[in-house]
Backbone:
């Protein structure tokens, strides 16, 4: 079989890869190949916003990664790390929350030497990517592919949460992605007309008919091939057949914070000692590959409800769900048209903090470990989840074997920095303050977790560790920068080699203060401009050289 050639090869059809596939294929003279390890996003459950938890059990659409076991975390059990494995990536299975983080997150990136990544320079790409239900203004766009909508038909308990936050002395905020970041309010979501608006729906499907865009699913990438430190080709397996495809211009890696460093290492780019220990020929020594792993660790306060409000899988709870199910089937409205978490907050864990350092997700049910604890779901109650927004702890991913289908070793190094533990404990105290406000008086039952008798810092921290979860925002393993541990430069080009970029959440040098899907989409929009502008410049330089020779 002859080797096929394309101008651009994109590895991974997640939130970044799908955006790039659309933007790079807008020019009909450029051929683009998009490789996705997972299947097509054909399940009707993907469309239903309220079916979010269903995909936590899916082996077809979810990589279902797990961390290494740590004795004092979840009693030695691995921590669950879901990642999307289909067209649209995690945008096809996530909770659809749309926020951008604090402007200082991006200004910090630029201060690290990443020119062009300040908030003011990122804002046009946020606006370009979205059609916001609220219309266009200084912070929002109304012409972009991603539809961003308000919460609809909320559970009454959400209103209790907002009133309780106000009673506890915290401001209310009707737009976390607007002029103000701090406060409690309703989230916005990537939902359109009662259906999930994944990047696959928003970016890939409109581009599907283009003759120059080729999308291959269930195409598992083995490695990238180099000639004189120039990325030339991609080897992938589809079915029982191994294939080789070549790129005329660039190869763009969009596998995410676990798969992107794995692919780089299997291709010979990474820490020299680690590669050699696996018998991998070193293309370029780049010690930062797989390092700098960050995540939003999650702890929760679980409270039983005396009024049996909210969602439950109890007989009475299931009966209450029937009208909602019928409403969704007939009109795409009701609670199934919403995310499972609708209200939340960005708050300060202590008065001396300059900008919010904790995020809260309020859930009108007893929700732990992404809904996988079915024993909790059969009871009536509510949950308030707390995460550390800007963690200082750093972990890593590393190879387990030469088999690309073998998951990487994931070590988040949870709460290793004492400051993270302090912020988390203080965050639980803030959550308790809100839940103790008069607005919850009629509902409040027993505090199931951490437990009303757990009051010391040490006790709260251990209880947090016992049920520690994640918000599923792994970042940083191919970080952008100029220091010795940086993997890509400010144009997202891999240091030390040519014609290879990484575009996904792994390039974030530090984690943004909030859910990551919106930022990744905007980053990919910017990356598309970087790639296309570089190509224009290359064409100009080639033409100039030709004229000078004539």
Residues:
């Amino acid at each position: 079989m002859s080797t096929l050639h394309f101008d651009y090869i994109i590895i991974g059809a997640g939130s970044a890869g799908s955006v790039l596939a659309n933007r790079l294929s807008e020019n009909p003279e450029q051929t683009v190949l998009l490789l996705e390890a997972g299947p097509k996003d054909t399940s009707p459950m993907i469309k239903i916003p309220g079916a979010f938890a269903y995909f936590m059990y899916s082996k077809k659409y979810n990589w279902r990664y797990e961390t290494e076991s740590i004795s004092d975390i979840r009693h030695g059990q691995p921590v669950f790390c879901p990642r999307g494995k289909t067209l649209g990536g995690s945008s096809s299975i996530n909770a659809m929350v749309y926020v951008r983080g604090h402007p200082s997150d991006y200004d910090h990136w630029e201060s690290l030497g990443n020119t062009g990544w300040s908030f003011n320079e990122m804002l046009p790409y946020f606006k370009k990517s979205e059609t916001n239900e609220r219309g266009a203004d200084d912070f929002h766009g109304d012409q972009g592919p991603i539809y961003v909508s308000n919460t609809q038909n909320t559970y009454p308990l959400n209103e209790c949460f907002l009133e309780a936050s106000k009673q506890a002395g915290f401001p209310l905020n009707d737009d976390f992605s607007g002029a103000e970041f701090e406060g409690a309010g309703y989230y916005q979501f990537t939902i359109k007309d009662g259906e999930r608006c994944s990047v696959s729906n928003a970016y890939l499907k409109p581009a599907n008919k283009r003759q120059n865009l080729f999308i291959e699913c269930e195409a598992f990438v083995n490695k990238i091939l180099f000639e004189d430190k120039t990325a030339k080709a991609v080897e992938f397996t589809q079915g029982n057949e191994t294939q080789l495809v070549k790129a005329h211009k660039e190869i763009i890696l969009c596998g995410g914070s676990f798969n992107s460093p794995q692919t780089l290492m299997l291709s010979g780019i990474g820490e020299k000692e680690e590669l050699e220990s696996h018998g991998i020929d070193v293309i370029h020594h780049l010690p930062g590959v797989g390092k700098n792993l960050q995540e939003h660790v999650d702890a929760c306060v679980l409270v039983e409800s005396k009024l049996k409000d909210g969602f439950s899988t109890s007989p009475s709870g299931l009966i209450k769900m029937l009208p909602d199910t019928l409403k969704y089937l007939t009109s795409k409205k009701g609670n199934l048209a919403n995310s499972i978490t609708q209200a939340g907050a960005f708050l300060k864990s202590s008065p001396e903090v300059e900008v919010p350092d904790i995020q809260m997700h309020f859930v009108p049910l007893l929700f732990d470990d992404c809904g996988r604890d079915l024993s909790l779901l059969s009871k009536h109650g509510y949950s308030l989840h707390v995460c550390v927004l800007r963690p200082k702890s750093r972990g890593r991913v590393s190879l387990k074997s030469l088999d690309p289908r073998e998951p990487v070793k994931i070590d988040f190094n949870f709460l290793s920095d004492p400051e993270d533990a302090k912020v988390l404990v203080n965050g639980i105290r803030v959550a308790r303050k809100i839940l103790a406000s008069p607005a919850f008086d009629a509902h409040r039952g027993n505090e199931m977790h951490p437990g009303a008798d757990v009051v010391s810092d040490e006790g709260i921290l251990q209880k947090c560790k016992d049920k520690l979860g994640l918000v599923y925002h792994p970042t940083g393993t191919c970080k952008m920068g100029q220091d010795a541990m940086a993997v890509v430069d400010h144009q997202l080009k891999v240091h030390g080699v040519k014609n290879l970029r990484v575009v996904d959440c792994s390039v974030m040098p530090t984690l943004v203060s909030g859910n990551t899907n919106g930022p990744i989409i905007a980053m990919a929009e910017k990356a598309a401009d970087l790639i296309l502008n570089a190509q224009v410049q290359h064409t100009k330089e080639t033409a100039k050289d030709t004229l000078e020779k004539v």
Q: What stands out?
A: The first helix runs from residue 15 to 24.
